[in-house]
Amino acid sequence: MKFVAFERTQQGTGASRRLRHAGKVPGIVYGAGEPRMIELDHNALFHALKKEAFHASILEMELAGATEKVLLRDFQMHPWKPIVQHIDFQRVDATTRITKKIPLHFTNEENSPAVKTDKCLVNHVATELEIQCLASQLPEFLTIDLGELQKGSSLHVNDLKLPAGVKVVTHGKPNPVIVSVTEPVVEEEVAPAAAAPAAAPAKKAKGKK
To answer: Model pTM?
Structure first.
């Protein structure tokens, strides 16, 4: 994806506030050289942030007539308004080793024996993974085929077929679960209780003559 940034000369809280009032977002680009202060059009950035590729792929930033490859590192939103307040990018090249969270795309779930035959529920325990790789090897997402899922099974990190050069960061967990399968709950039919025999009508007491 490509986007356009502009050089920012003024710094500080007051300057950033004026930028935001003018429909701009202050930001910074760092890595592989001197950090550069930038500003971006808020509406264009706001819509770009809605796209998955903007978060998990190498971006082409046009700045001062030159194009640089960057990676989105962080952004801050207003606590309750749909306003981007600040954004950070990192310069990368083919030899930069990066750590990045990328989304998981699940396919063929509905065709798996667990779902199609046994009517099980498939739980997506993880929807993204943190990976390490060279910038040139960064995948936009990982596709996970669930077509072979069986009842009572689960899918772990070690079961994934990763692209060449990509390693999952598990933060000490040996083999985290990605997908689990829950068997359907079978409701037992309760037989209706037998009707109790009707009570005999009470006898009226005879009055004394």
So the answer is: 0.77
